[in-house]
Every structure is written in C-alpha cells, then in structure tokens.
Amino acid sequence: MLRSVSVLAAGAVAAVVVPVGLVPVAAGEPRLEMPTSAWSPKAANREVVGGLPPAVSPWAGETDARQPRRTSCATDREGVLPDFPMERFRISDRLQFAVNLSNGNLWVDHLALSVRGTGLNLNLRMSHGVVYSERRWHVNAGRSMALDLSFTDTVLMPTDGKSCARFTANGTGGYSMASNGLRAKLVKNAGGSYTVRFIDTGETWNYNPNGWLLNRTDRNGNAIVYYYNTDGSLASIADTQGRVTTFEAIGARVTRVVDPSGETAAEYTYDSNNNLVEIEDREGETIQIGYNADGRVESLIDQLGRTWSLTYNGGKVSGVTTPRQSGGAVTTSFTYDSATQTTQTDPNNNKTTYTFDSQRRQIQAKDALGHTQSQSWTANSDIQSTTDGLNNSTTGTYDTIGNLLTRRLPTGATATVGYTSPDHPNLPTSTTDPAGRQLTREYDAGGNVTKIRSTPLNADIETRDYSGPKNLLTTVTDGNGRETDYGYDPAGNLTLITPPAPLGQTRLTYDSLSRVSSITDGNGKRIDYAYDRLDRIVAISEHNGPVLQTMSYDAVGGMATRNHGMVSTTFSYDTYPSGRLITTAVRTSAGASETVSYTYDKVGNLKTLVDPAGVATYGYDAANRLTSLADPFGQSTTFGYDNADRRTTTTFPGAGSQTNTYDNSGRLTGVMAKNTAGTELFKASYNYSVDGADRDQIQSRTVNGNTITYTYDSLQHLTQAGSTSYTVDNNDNTTQFDGAPFTINAADQLTAYPNSTVTYDGAGNTKTITSPTGTATWNYTATNQLTTAVLGQTTQVSADYDTTDQTQVRRITENTSGTTTEHVFTHTALGLSSIKVNGTRTSVARDPDGRLVTQQKGTTRHNLIIDHQGSVLAALTTTGTLAATPARTPYGRSTTSPAPVTPFGYHGGYTLNNGLVLFGYRYYNPSIGRFTAPDPTRQERNDYAYAQADPINNSDPTGAWSLPSIGGTVGGFIGGAIGVGLAAACPATAGLGCLGASAVMGGLLGGTGAALGSRLAGGEDEDVSNDGLNGVLGGMLNPLGRFFS
C-alpha cells in the first residue's frame, strides 16, 4: 500500500482528548476555577495606519533579489500550490513544514494570527521556501504579495503559501488561467489596475497598476484592505469587520504584528544575515530557526524545545529527522534519482518511488512491495484519471475553461456536471448522477446559490435569500417550504437563528476578535466560553454560574489536561513524522485511575494498544498495511490484500477466514466466511447494476441465497428494500416507514407513529414519548446530554459522561422489564474497546482504522465478519462454527432471536438493551430510523434523519455527518470538483459558508466540539476538518493512504 503518515493520523489518535460539551456540577462536587490562561481581548482598534502604496514598482530597489525570485517563480516550484507533491510534517497546531517531492524544496509555514471575519477570515502567515539563491521568509500580505509585471508576456502572482502562480498572455489581450491548478483568472482593467479572481470561491485580489495588492474581497464585496508606509512596507490591515492589525518593520523585514486588541500576535527576530531566527507567539512561546552555511533552514526548535533537523544534498532536502521521546529520533530521507523520479525512505527503511511529468506533477508512485498507482493531468493541472494497482482507471473530462464535465468509474457509472450560467461560467448549474437524476442550481449576481431544484420532481429542494450591505444569508427554505432565518450584528457576526417552530431561537455573542463567547440555546440556557491567547477553549461555564469544564494545553497545542466534574484526564504524546501521537490517556475519578496507552513504530503505525482488557499488538508489511493483530484474548489474526490495497482476507487461526471480493471500482461485491476445512459458512454478495447499467448505489444484496432488491427515489432516498417500503419527503423525512405512517412537524421532528407520540424541548431534544405503557420523560444537561429517561417511578435510563458531550459516555444504566443493566465504557482512539456489563467485561479488538476484528465476552471469544459499513454479518466461534448471523432491517432494527452474540452490530455502533445505538454525538433509534436529538454539528440538511435516508449506501458512525460507505462513488469525485464552488457560492456567515449559519452552532449546542476550538475561534478549514474528526471518528491510527498530496 502506498502509505505515508499524515496530519490526520495524529489528530485521530488524539480522539480521546476532545473537549466537547459540558455537564452541570453536582452538589458536593469540587468547583472548578477559571484558569489563569483565560484571556479576554480588549476592544478592537479601528484606526488604520498608513495609506496607499508608493507610486513605484514594489520591487524597486530590490535588484539583487529580483532575478532569482523571478527565476524561481517562472521556471521552478516553491511554496505550495494544488498540484505540488508535498510530504508534510506537522510540528504544532500553528507550525508545519513540507518537502516538495519533485524538486526537494523546503516549505515552512507558521500561522501568526487568525481572526474570524465576515466572508473572509484574516489569516496571517509567515512562510519560507528555498529555490536557487532565493531564501526569504514571506508574509502573506503587503509587498510580499505584489505582482511582478516586469515580463513582457507573463505576470507572476505570489500566493499565501509562498508560491508563485503564472499568468501567460493569451494573444488576445488577456491572460490564460493560472498555472499549477490554482484555478484563478487575471484581468487587466481599464486604467491599468489588475484583478485576480479565484474561480471556485469567487474571492478577488485587487492590485494597482504597479502591482501592489490593495485588497482581497469575497464574492459579496466584503474586503480585507492593506495600508502601506511611504517606503512600501506594510503599515496595517483592516479586516472585513473594520478591525485593524498593525505591523512594525525594519526595511522589508516584518518584526512585529499587533492584533486588533493591541496584543503582540507575533514577534520576529533576525540575525545579521537577515535570516529569521526566532518567532514569538501571542502566548510568549518561541520557535527557534537555525541555518546551515548556505543559509538554508537546518533546524526548527519548537515551543517544547524539540529539534526537527534537515539535511541537504545539492540544495535539495535529503533528510528530515523527527525528535522522539521514546526510541530516539527517526529520519525520513529523500533521494532525487532524476529530474522525474524521487525515492523516499521512511524511518522503517521502506522505500516509495515517485515519478513526475515534465511539469513535475506526480504521475506515479511505487511502494516498497512494487505496487503502483498512477494519475494523469490536464493542461490546467486538473486530475484527468486515476489508476489503481490493478490497472483500473477512473476518468474525467473537462471543458476548455477547466470545468469538470464527467466522471466515469472503471465499471461504467458516470456522473455529469453542466455549466449554463453566462454570468458564472465556472459555477455548476446542474449535476446528474449515474441513474439520470438531475439537480439544478441557480445563483445571484455575486454567485451565491439561491436555489437547488430537482428536475425529476419539478420541485425546489432548497432556496436561499440574502440581504444587507454584506449580502449575508438571511433565510433558508427547505424542500418542504419551512424557513430558517438568520440575524447578524452590524459587523456581520451571526447572532440569531430562528428555526421553524416549535424549536426555540438560538443566540450568540462574540468577543472583539469574533470568538464565540456565549450561546443561548432554544431552551434559553446560556453557556459561556473562555479562550487562551492562541484561541483554544480553556473553560466552559454556566452564565453567571460555576465553571463546568477546564482544559489546559501544552505549548504546541496538545491538550494536556481536562477537568470535568469529578473526572480529570491527563494526556501525553510523542512525536513522529506524522506529527504528535497520543501515548497515554489517564482518567482519574474518586481516587481511581484507568489508563489507555499506545506505542508506535518509527513511522507512526500503531504498534500496541493497552486498555483494561490487555494488550493488542499490531504488525505491518513494508507498505504499512496491517498484516497481523494479536488481540488481548490470545489470538493472532492475519490479513491479506490485493495490489490495490483492498483487504481481501482475514484469517482467524483455528476458526476460519473472511474473504472479500471487489469490482473494478473498488466496491465490495462479496463477503464469504469459511471454516479451516474450507466449508462455506456464510456468503453475502452485492450488485450495483440495473439491466446491465452501472450505478453508484447498491441495487441488490444476496445473503445465503436470499436476495433483497433496493429501489431509490429521485433524491437517492431508499424507498424499497425487498417487501419493505419507505416514503421520504423532500427534506429527508421518512413519512411512511415499513408501511407505518409517520407524522413530521415543521421542524423535521417525528411527533407521532403507531401507538406513540413524541414531544421535544426548545433545543430539539426528545422530551417525552407516550405509548400504551405510559409517558417517558427524558432529561438533559445544560448542553443537551441525555441524563435520564423516566417512566412513572422507574428510571429507564441514566447516563454520565467522561467528556462533556455524548461521544465519551462513561456509564449507562438501563432498567428493562425490572432488570437493571449497567454498562461501563472504555474509549480509545479506535473507538469503544471495553465494556463492563453488570461486572462482566466485553472487549473487542479493532484494526487501526477502527474496524471490529474479534470479541471476548466474559471467557467466550468470537471472530467477527463485517461488511463495508462496519456492520457485523456473522460471528464465528474459535473452533469455526457459525455462532450467529444477525438479521436487521435496513435502518438497523434487530430481527434476530435470541439476542445477538455481540452488542456491536449495526454500522459498528454499540446497541443498548433498549435498542438505542450509540453513534458518536447522538443516540440513534433504529426502530424509527432517526436520531433522538438534532445533529449537534448542524452539517446535515435534516437534523434527525439517519444517513440522508439511504442507510444502504451511507452511514453516520459519528452522529455528525453522513458519509458514503460503499467506496468507488462518482458522487465523491463530482462533489470534490464542485463542492468548493457550491459552498463558497454563498456568502460566509461570520466566516462560514452557506451551511455555516447553522454549522456555526455545531460543536456548541451539544458541547464545544474539537471543531469549535479551531472554527469558532478563528482556525482554518484544514484545522477544522481535521479536528472535527477527533472526538468521534475512531480508527485512522493507521497512517492514512498517501499517494497524491
């Protein structure tokens, strides 16, 4: 497998450290104090310093540096652009570096300041790249970002990542699209000024006739404006809300950045050779930078004093040494075999060879086992095709302006995209899936999405309205005609969300840097949030009440402690090429401690996991694929793969094996379990075609000879599964469920179904369920954690949590038919690993991706046969007999009698005795196919529906986001091509995209969420996407498959 460790791997390992949610302090519990690290910024400065840039070329007086800089931009690759093949090393939450695999260039990047804005965030970075003799540090503002207009047929444009985009004259008075996959267009305006427009986002950068950058604006005109001193140095920046950040400089060197609150956000120190040698952040922590005799960066010493070392050969990075506390430092080396080939040797001495085309774009990779994957490019550096290790190709077509038109799977399923708007030729106006189902989109003058419509239904699925001088999203109307309204303060921060009744309004307040300082939910409960100077949440409090949770961090952003009620958790880490990986999580409560620990090999593959059940040990091949798992129960399971890195065999010693088969698109087509004698015990197969035409949804499934056929409606909802039928409305609500009528209110809440009625509180949580047995009342904490469900005088369910949302539940006690069952859970970075049920321990061993492998309940062991969604299809005994073949409805209700041998069944979730399934942030009720509470991250169109009403092809193991689970879907490729354009095609709401007005609530309504710490406090999209996974998405400890950066 062509693998290398990734930033995501480090993040996912820290899954157990997510500071999400909160619960009230019980009487008698120790009160927490507000941490001394909590920081409240002063009122924002709004007085700009400086003015227009001087009336000279930005490069006047820099003759010595200009030519090598021009050469590097015009003929080589520095910094980061979309088609650059980069090997990244993440040092902290604000510092990273990377090696360009094609040419050995080093890129270093430090985020100095991030301030949320309206439409655009202000993100100030200091970046470094090395090409030829040009080794300057680059601030992504001011002179560093000026156009180079000195060429006769080319304009060079610096980008945020210290790279250069080239615009070449097209012979008709204009310029061609930017190089290197940047997807930007340059226009020379009347009067001589220049505008660069980024196609996918609608963001524009505006320059004067000399090339000075004047401002950046979003598609609605919300602008970040740059002001200069008379010598051309940067004086100040006014962000989209008018707050001013100021700069101090010595010549062209920025020495100090002062944020809008008056605090020093970053201070820079240079040596006598003008090399940047120290960066001091707003917390006062420092980063040290060392250079070799050639002036190249040779060391980076982080805020914890750890040293990352670099060596060079011929000016190219030849080695990166990563510091480790255990086992000593490790080195990743790079050998540049030719102009088109590089070999990377990982710390385990396994080699991967990369091949590049004449433009140094990566076209092939060969792993240490000789397996290859490849891709081809268009002239605009869009991916034309990808080919796996079995020579199966997924292909795309593009029009002359770089728009993706079609994407075809190796098995034939094809999706198409149309572009018919004369005002927005690069924004998709239609998408058609392989079954011919079409959605159309309309836009306003700025390119904001105003309507999404289903052609076969002849119905609007969603409409959006915008208003005000900032053109912010004010109303979203769903497919059922129900409106959600949004309100803002004068600066453009989202302050009010009014959903359809009976849900209550949600209100937000902010500090002077637009960090969310409080949220009042639909129940009128207000929670306050405190941050440190680097925008990390350090405390969560009831308004005018006690501190409920505190968190502390080490100097590089790793959570060190979390205190919540009677529970204190401490975390330790070690460093690997992928970044920091968690080594211990120690939970302490009432004087008792429980430790989960991890060790890794030199590249960061999980080597051992120790939890209360014992030690699990993992082995890997030279391509970093898992080959063995010695579980804590005394069994060593082995794994086999095909050349496309798909797991084909799982062998359980003494019991038998699971064999998986796949089609050419990588989709699972068969699962077979056999005993050691080769006797077939279980068989399932999956079909993706209709009358010979390939589709990207499963069309039928056959289990042990019994076939169930699936049909779907025009919005890809499941409508038929064998003899079971479903009716789904235009907003993903199932209104007929297995023939039973469901009553849905305007807030997408199920209020009545046969023999039952349901009510909800103002925040959308299930409040009461009335059935023939009586009325059960559900109770919640201030942040909407379920604590009890009471029927009459009987507490049916009680729960408490280690963290402060529902992802890390510690104990659930059930009372079912007079029988009390207590579940005590142990969480790891892979997911739930150990549960004590009335004192009897059930433990599971998982692979590094979090998939179930084996289980021991008491002293009884089973081997688990799973499908592509993580559902358990069968269980084998240790002697190779079939212990169970759990049967379920499409939405997961068990039809097996007696009870299944494992509580981990449907989509890998843990099932309680009462039938509820634990899926990350939420409880799921498979009997009605819905969650019991709203999506806390507000990423779904429907807050309660499961898997977008298609549980056959989608799953939602986190309770936060439905994901395709079959692999090989063209939708993913199409989504990747147009999703950015669609998300950016509506104005950012306090810096968020179209979905943002509700997504901003995400980590807060149900807790804070890891994503809150980055997104709401001003983090970048990459940090948000990574951090948002950490709390609930188990697995990913295995270094992620990295072929193309």
UniProtKB/TrEMBL annotation:
<feature type="region of interest" description="Disordered">
    <location>
        <begin position="366"/>
        <end position="396"/>
    </location>
</feature>
<keyword id="KW-0677">Repeat</keyword>
<feature type="region of interest" description="Disordered">
    <location>
        <begin position="414"/>
        <end position="437"/>
    </location>
</feature>
<feature type="region of interest" description="Disordered">
    <location>
        <begin position="642"/>
        <end position="663"/>
    </location>
</feature>
<feature type="region of interest" description="Disordered">
    <location>
        <begin position="56"/>
        <end position="77"/>
    </location>
</feature>
<dbReference type="Pfam" id="PF25023">
    <property type="entry name" value="TEN_YD-shell"/>
</dbReference>
<dbReference type="Pfam" id="PF05593">
    <property type="entry name" value="RHS_repeat"/>
</dbReference>
<dbReference type="InterPro" id="IPR050708">
    <property type="entry name" value="T6SS_VgrG/RHS"/>
</dbReference>
<feature type="compositionally biased region" description="Polar residues">
    <location>
        <begin position="371"/>
        <end position="396"/>
    </location>
</feature>
<dbReference type="InterPro" id="IPR056823">
    <property type="entry name" value="TEN-like_YD-shell"/>
</dbReference>
<feature type="domain" description="Teneurin-like YD-shell">
    <location>
        <begin position="681"/>
        <end position="936"/>
    </location>
</feature>
<feature type="domain" description="Teneurin-like YD-shell">
    <location>
        <begin position="508"/>
        <end position="612"/>
    </location>
</feature>
<feature type="domain" description="Teneurin-like YD-shell">
    <location>
        <begin position="253"/>
        <end position="371"/>
    </location>
</feature>
<dbReference type="InterPro" id="IPR031325">
    <property type="entry name" value="RHS_repeat"/>
</dbReference>
<protein>
    <recommendedName>
        <fullName>Teneurin-like YD-shell domain-containing protein</fullName>
    </recommendedName>
</protein>
<dbReference type="InterPro" id="IPR022385">
    <property type="entry name" value="Rhs_assc_core"/>
</dbReference>
<feature type="compositionally biased region" description="Polar residues">
    <location>
        <begin position="649"/>
        <end position="663"/>
    </location>
</feature>
<dbReference type="InterPro" id="IPR006530">
    <property type="entry name" value="YD"/>
</dbReference>
